[in-house]
Amino acid sequence: MKSRNQKRPNILLVMADQIAAPALPVYGHRVVKTPHLESLASSGVVFDAAYCNFPVCAPSRFSMLTGLYATRIGAYDNAAEFSASWVTLPHYLRALGYHTSLCGKMHFIGPDQLHGYHERLTTDIIGSDFALTANWSETVPSSPAGATLKTVLDAGHCIRSLQIDYDDEVEHCAIQKIYDLARAQEQQPFFLTVSFTHPHAPFTSPLEHWQRYRDEDIDMPAVGPLAEAQQDMQTRWLGQAKHSDKYVITDDLVRNARHAYYGMISYIDDKVGRIMEAMRRTELDRETVVIFLGDHGEMMGERGMWFKSTFYEWSCRVPMIVSAPERFSPRRCTQIVSLVDLLPTVLDLAGAAKGQEYVDEPDGKSLVPLLEGKVPKDWDDVVLSEYTADGVLAPCRMARQGLYKYIYVHGHGNQLYHMGEDPHELRNLSGQLSMAEVEQNLHALILKDWDPEQVTVDILRSQRRRLFIQKVTAGAGMPVNWSFRARFDDDSRYVRSAKASDIKARKRFPYVTPQG
Fold first, then answer.
1. Would you call 36 a catalytic residue per the annotation?
2. Among 326, 328, 323, 306, CA closest to 315
3. Alpha carbon of 172 to those of 169, 245, 271, 401, 491: distances in Å?
C-alpha cells in the first residue's frame, strides 16, 4: 500500500459490548444519562443507522476487524476462530507505519491472540477455547454459555463484579498507554483500541451508577411480549435456547433489569469521559480521530426478548460516532452503514493511497465521504447482517436497504418491514403483492455470493471438529488454554473454559442468591 507524504492521524477506537443504539440519548432515549458520549457526539459525526454484521460478540468483532462478513472468514459463532492468515485492520495500519495496541475485550478464539496488533495491554475477560461452540446437530437449539432469563431475575446493583474488575483494569491500562504514547521519544502514529465489556449481561450495575436513576423513571419496552403465533422462527428458537417458558418475567423485573442496564451504560460513559480527559491533557486530542461504537445491541425486554442474536433494532443497531473536529464538522448522517465499513474508513483516514490494493476486497466501504457531508453517486445504502451461532438451527441473514429491512431464515418464513412506517417491526409485508418487487430485490441481495446450503454444510463440519477437540481437551489434565495473559493470575480472575454466565454471577459482591 502506498502512502501520502503527510502526517497520519492517530486513531482511538473505543468499544462497548452489547450497547444498543436506541438506549442512548444521542439516539433519542430520554432516561439514560451519558453526558460524555453526548459531548463526543456534539463535536463529531453521528451515524443514525449503523448496524453490526453479526449480532453476537466474537463474529461481530472478527468481521469488523477484517472488513469481511463472518461466514466468509469462518467465524460462525462465539467459539469459532478466524484464521491467522486473514488480514486485519491492524495489519494494514502496521504497513502504514502505525503502532497498534489492544486494551480490553476482543474475544479472539484460538492460538492467535493478536491478529495484527503489536501488543495487548490486558487479558481477555472470556476464554479462547472452543467451549462456546454451537451445536446444530441437536433437535432443540441450546446456549452453550448457559444464558437464560435467570439473568433478568437476578438483575440489580452491586459493589463489585467480574465485569467491574475487568473494565476498571481496561480503563487504567488505556489511560496509562495514552500518557506513554504522549511522551514517547519516537512519535509514531498509533491505533489504540479500548474495548469494555459493559453493558453486557448480567445486568449488574455499580451502586453509584444505579443511584443516578429513580426506579419510577425507568421506561418500559415499547413492544411487549408477543404470542408464539406472532413470533418468527428465529425468535422461537432463541426462546427455546434460553428456556424462556420456565421464567415468569413481571413488569417489575423488566423495569429492574432496564434500571441496571442504564446504570451500566452510565458507568461506561464515565470511562469515556476520563479517557477523553487524558487525551486533552496530553493534547493528543488535536491529532486523533476518535471512534466510539458497539459490537451489537441488547433487546432489553423489547418484544419480550433479551440479549442479542436477532435482527430487530435493539439487537442489531449500534452506536457509531466519529469525532475529529479539526477535520469534520459535527453532523448527523442518515445513510445506512455497518461495522464492516470500519476497515476501509480507518485506512482512508490514515492516509492510505487512493486506489489502494487490499489483500482481500472488503465487504465494507469508506465512510469518509459521508463524514465530509458528501453522499457518493453510487452509494447503495445497503447493509447485510448474519447469524449462524447458538440458539438457532439454520443460517439467518438480514438486508437493510433504504427504508426496508428483510430477514431471511433458511427453510422458514421471511420478514419484510418498512422501517419508516413501522419502526417497531410489527407488520410483516413479506408475501404482499404490492411488495413483490422490493422483496425480490432484497432476497437477491441476501443470496448474492452466499449459499445457505453450503454455509450449513461448512458450519456443521466446523462444529463437529471443535466439539470433538473441546471434549478431549477440557476438564482434568491439560485443557487447551490459548488466552492471552497480561498478569500471572489472569486465568483465575476471569472466565476460561466454563459457562460465562455462571462465573460472572459468582463474582458478584455482595453475592445475590440466584432466583428461579
1. no
2. 306
3. 5, 42, 10, 41, 19
- Give the active site residue among 36, 52, 103, 107: 107
Choice among 52, 57, 158, 316 that is catalytic: 57
**Does the pLDDT at position 295 exceed 60?**
yes
Please state, in angstroms and rounded to a whole number, the distance separating the CA atoms of residues 420 and 409: 23
d(CA 456, CA 452): 6
The Cα–Cα gap between 500 and 44 comes to 36
CA pair distance 437, 289, nearest whole angstrom: 41
CB 337 within 8 A of CB 47: yes
Distance from CA of residue 317 to its chain's centroid?
A: 9
Whether pTM exceeds 0.85: yes
Is the pLDDT confidence value at 514 over 60?
no
What CA–CA distance (Å, rounded) separates 398 from 124?
Answer: 30
How many percent of the chain have pLDDT more than 70?
95
Cis amide bond preceding 141, omega within 30: no
Contact 391, 242 (CB under 8 A): yes
Structure confidence at residue 304 (pLDDT): 96
487-491: list long-range contacts, CB under 8 Å, 24+ apart: 487/123, 490/123
Nine-digit cell string for 95: 504497513
Distance between CA atoms of 499 and 78, rounded to whole angstroms? 12
> Which stretches of 147-300 are assigned E, i.e. beta strand?
156-158, 190-195, 204-206, 288-294
Helices 251-281 and 35-42 cross at an angle (nearest 10°) of 50
Task: Report pLDDT for 513.
Answer: 56
Catalytic residue list contains 107: yes
Give 413-433 pLDDT, tens digit per residue. Answer: 999 999 999 999 999 999 999
